[in-house]
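W.,

You were right to be curious about this one. When I first looked at the sequence I had no strong expectations either way, so I just let the prediction run and decided to look at it fresh. Below is the sequence, 316 residues in total, followed by the output.
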Amino acid sequence: MEYDPEELLAASGLRTDKIWMDGGLVPYDQANVHILTHSLHYGLAVFEGMRCYKSDDGRSAIFRANEHVRRLFDSAHIVEMPMPFSQEEILKACADVVRVNRLSECYIRPIAFYGEGEMGLSARGNAVRVAVAAWPWGAYLGEEAARQGVRLKTSSFVRFHHNSIPPNAKASGPYINSILAGYEARRHNYDEALLLDVNGYVAEGSGENFFIVRDGEVRTPPIMSCLPGITRASVIRILRDAGVTVTEQLFPRDAVYIADEAFMTGTAAEVTPVRELDDRTIGDGKPGPITLKVMEVFRAALHGRDPRYRSWLYYV
């Protein structure tokens, strides 16, 4: 199939004026890397996904920016990647990219990776390069997802054991697992995949944490084979503030089949209801009352409407 890269880029909305790279802002077309970039070949990079929202007072704010940047540095520490910038410098870079590109709402992608130099698995001398890009990005799973809920399929691919790849590191290479699971689900006309861990318990979606509701209580898998999501932590706080019992507990997929409600969380996905798993309707097949309440409060927090959670906003 023939395609025009420039047309695809324009349609994607990714093109902006500037990208922060290795300490300064550069024009979009100059934010390039060499073909022998080590991380391109071996997948050793760490990254974050952050969102900036326009608050009701007209200012733009990055949601839980400090927590995201801290997790980026935690990820780098886990994979033994020395960061050449401080957390404060990366935080400022995120805000600068939003401002210079005149974005009131956007997705922000910081990434740290090994550049060109040595090759091979034992290479340790390559410089660590860091970049931050931002672009407009709407609903990750589609606008209808929040209103109707999504359909999931349990993937034939399983989440790796925590002693194979550390789940606390948001690293690039392991996302091959997520990509393959997502390809499989969408090829069979589902919206998203649900992955189990190596013992057959529910882990997470391809890019989202997972929650179920039964008899007014909420359960979510513990941090063993899933990423400790920033949105996950925010939702747990919102639920507990509302007096809802939240338990971090292993459960099999048939517990999802008989749940009253289910939903997924993530920076890109925000809070997305789940209406079906493996062709079994969950509850009455539409977003339930606890899910809807979480969505309402979370949305208010994102836009600065709930004073309890204003500390989560980093104004740019």
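Here's what jumped out at me. The mean pLDDT is 94. And, maybe more interesting for your project: The two ends are 42 Å apart (CA to CA).

Coffee later to discuss?

I.
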